[in-house]
Structure formats: C-alpha cells, structure tokens
Amino acid sequence: MQFNTQLLHGKTSKGYALKEMLPPISQVSAFRYESMEELEKVFEHKSMGYAYTRIGNPTIAAFEQRINELEGGMGAICCSSGMSAIASALLAVCESGDEIIACSGLYGGTIGLLHDLEKLGIHTVFTDDMTEASLKPLITEKTKVIYAELISNPSLKVLEVAGAAKAAHESGIPLFVDSTTATPFIVRPLSLGADIVIHSTSKYLNGGGNSIGGIIVDGGKFKWDTGKHTALKEYKKYGPMAFSVRLRTDIWENFGGCMAPANAFLNFIGTDTLGLRMERICDNADKLAHALDGLKGINANYLTLPSHPYHRYVEEELNGFGGGILSFRAGSKERAFKIINSLKYAMIASNIGDLRTLVIHPASTLYLQASGQETEAAGVYEDTVRVSVGIEDVNDLIEDFTEAVKGAVE
Ligand SMILES: *Cc1c(COP(=O)(O)O)cnc(C)c1O
Questions:
Q1: Residue pair 264/62 in contact by the 8 Å Cβ criterion
Q2: What share of the chain is helix, strand, coil (3-state, %, to 5)?
Q3: How far is residue 150 from each of residues 118, 294, 318, 330, measured CA to CA in Å?
Q4: Domain boundaries of the chain, sorted by first residue
Q5: Cα 203 to averaged position of ligand 1 atoms, centre (Å)
Q6: Structural contact between residues 270 and 183, judged by C-beta atoms closer than 8 angstroms
Q7: I need a labelling partner for 221 at 20 to 30 A (CA). Which of 9, 246, 307, 389 fits?
Q8: What is the Cα Rg of the chain in Å?
C-alpha cells in the first residue's frame, strides 16, 4: 500500500465498535463498569479497557494508532500540545545531573523549555552541526539523549538522521527527532535510525489549523536496559518498551497533558488528506520560492533552491520534497513589515501547516524572548519574513507576493 491508500485503508481505518466509518468521539471523562472486579482488572492491566480519559480514551487511541502506523512505530502517545509532547519525552529519559545535546536553531518554544529544564538540573549542550563527526566529541557520560528537528523552522537545516543516529547509538544514547515540519509523508525518521519521533499535531497533521496537539512515537528498537539511563532504572525489565511504559504510566499520566477526544477526532480526519495536502503545499512552496528568488531586493531561503546549503538532502533524504516553509530577507524590518501588511491572501498569523498561506515576522514575535545568538542560529534576522505555504492556486500566491514586494521595494 502506498501512502494515501494506507491512510484511507490501513489498519486504523477500521475496527470500531459499531462499524463506524470514522472513530466516534468518546466525549467522556470516565468509563463505567458492571462490577468492581472488571474495573480492578483494567487498572491491573489484566484486561483491555478504558477507565479515565487522561489515561486512555478510544478516540485518542485511534489517532495514536494511525500516526504510529504512518511512522512505522511500536506505539504512540498523544499529548495536549507539541510542547507537552517534547517536555514529556525529555522528562521520561532525563533526571537532574543529566545532559541533552540539541541542535541550535530549534523551535522557539523548545529553546524556552530547555532553559526551564536547566533549573531542574538538566543541562543542554547546543551545537550548530549535528553531523556524526561533530556529535561524537560532545557526548559525555552525562549525555542521555540527542534531540534535533528534522527540518528546522525557519532556518531549514536538515538533519542527516542516519549519521546522528550512528553517533548516538555508538554511545548508547537515543536520538529524538521533532519531525513536525517534515511529516511522515516526506520522511519516516524511524526508518532512518531515529528512536523517538515527536510531532506538534497542531501543524501539518491536523492540517486545518483547528486544534492544538502533540504526539510521541516510539520506534521500539532502542536498548534501554544498559544501565545508562538512571531515570528509567525501574523500567529496565520492560526492555525495548521501557521508555513507552515509563511515559504512559508515569510522566505523561501524572503530568496530565492528555489530548482532548474532540481534538483527536479533528486530527484524525485532518490526516485523511495529509498526502494530498503535502504534495500541493510542497509544489506551491517550490514555485513560490523560485518566483520570490528572482525578485529584486529579495533573498529567498527554500530547500529546493539550488543555492540552499542543504539542497542535496531534498533528493537524499526528503524524497524530492522541500516542505511547506520558506523564508526570505526583505532588506530591512520596515520593508518586511510593509510587504507583510500589503499581502492580500497570505494571513498574518503565528502558525504553520494550515490550508491557508500564513506569514509572520519572526524576529519581533516568535523570537522576542530569544537571545541575539539564538535568533541568528535559527536563521532569523531583522528583515526575515517566514511563509507557511498553503494550498491556494499558486499563481494567485505568486502574484500576491510579487505585487507586495514590488510595492515595498520601490
Ligand atoms: C509548533 C511547534 C512545536 C510546538 O507545538 P505546539 O503544538 O504549539 O505546542 C514544536 N516543534 C515544532 C517544530 C513546531 O513547529
């Protein structure tokens, strides 16, 4: 089965209690039982069943199983947001005294979270270069996880997953990949050696900009029982399941960041069209980037432009696609604002992955809290405009941006 067929006819498109075409929304807080013995068995994990929606719910499970199937994982856990997913995943493997190696230029919220973790005694070593050779010397006894974004936003650095995974695995460390901007349509990081994949489902998986959510997918191959991860020592007996068991029965369950059942449903129906949307979005982004790059006073940043430093990964890792995000430098902040304000179709909003084209000036919004160094590492300058390309007719988008740029440059 190919991607779109798997989406519509895969395992998770069937098997609902009353043969519904889609997973029904179980909009309940709790599930009732006929006898106390039955509920006891559910709590003891001796029989399958749901007890309380923070711990499990069939609508949420349907979405978990679908993304797990698309990513080729062993199991997945939905969270209330992408940030909740990242925080839960990191706290499941790190404790005070441990270290994380992360790429610089991460999503702004993730940088903020890593700063918060410092106060809990979990230190992050940032690096610009996530290649196998440059990761190796950074790994110490304290390192417990390597964390990276597959396609960073908006700098568009591409992680060479196989190389980073090799460096990590040689030292008994897992590789966690935030694949929000890539999606399983473009690449499946687990198949390239990543151990855990994280998404903000708020973006391309939902696709319609109608609910916040996150998900963690466990590849199920990492060896957690070497003794290196003291945060997991009580879970070593679960072998390759140790991470997922700790997450589900401890960190995730107790921090309480579950997804709402209605959001799981919206995410589920959103992913039905993931393949179609991504194909159109990537095609639009490619055409818009080429058109922008030819305009006077504009310097466009998109992976399929031959001048892009990560251009070769489009064919080597990303199956020929460049994703839905592009950015360009307008020459000055004033000019960037002028261009953004005069766009007819592109909406000013701090989101990505919508059906509609969205624009923002990241330096004055998303990176307001970050240091100058962090901002530049993220490829964000005073004159940078970020575009999350939508599914509009591309000629309308090209005309809209061309007019706006000409009006601002003259
Ligand atoms: C949006 C985003 C997040 C955070 O997700 P939320 O759902 O907003 O909490 C994390 N990583 C990346 C790459 C994102 O784009």
A1: yes
A2: 45, 15, 45
A3: 24, 28, 10, 26
A4: 3-270, 274-407
A5: 8
A6: no
A7: 9
A8: 22
Ligand 1 centroid, distance to 82 Cα (angstroms): 5
**Alpha carbon of 271 to ligand 1 centroid (Å):** 17
Q: Which residues line ligand 1 (CB under 6 A)?
A: 81-83, 107, 109-110, 149, 153, 178, 180-181, 200, 202-203, 212, 214, 352
On whether the 274-407 domain is CATH 3.90.1150.10, my answer is yes
Q: How far apart are CA 79 and CA 252, in angstroms?
A: 8
- Distance (angstroms) between ligand 1 centre and the Cα of 89 equals 14
Number of the ligand 1 atom closest to the C-alpha atom of 152: 13
> Identical fold at 3-270 and 274-407?
no
Cα of 153 to ligand 1 centre, how many Å? Answer: 10
Beta bridge pairs of residue 260: none
Centre of ligand 1 to C-alpha 109, Å, is 7
- Ligand 1: nearest atom to the Cα of 214: 7
Which residue has its alpha carbon closest to ligand 1 atom 2?
Answer: 200
Q: What's at 182, amino acid-wise?
A: A
Q: SS3 of 400, please? A: helix
pTM above 0.90, yes or no: yes
pLDDT of the chain, 410 residues: tens digit per residue: 899 999 999 888 888 889 999 999 999 999 999 999 999 999 998 999 999 999 999 999 999 999 999 999 999 999 999 999 999 999 999 999 999 999 988 898 999 999 999 999 999 999 999 999 999 999 999 999 999 999 998 889 999 999 999 999 999 999 999 999 999 999 999 999 999 999 999 999 999 999 999 999 999 999 998 999 999 999 999 999 999 999 999 999 999 999 999 999 999 999 999 999 999 999 999 999 999 998 988 989 999 999 999 999 999 999 999 999 999 999 999 999 999 999 999 999 999 999 999 999 999 998 887 788 888 888 899 999 999 999 999 999 999 999 999 999 76
Token pair, residue 109, equals 């919220």
Report the CATH architecture of 3-270. Answer: 3-Layer(aba) Sandwich (3.40)
CA terminus-to-terminus distance, the chain: 52
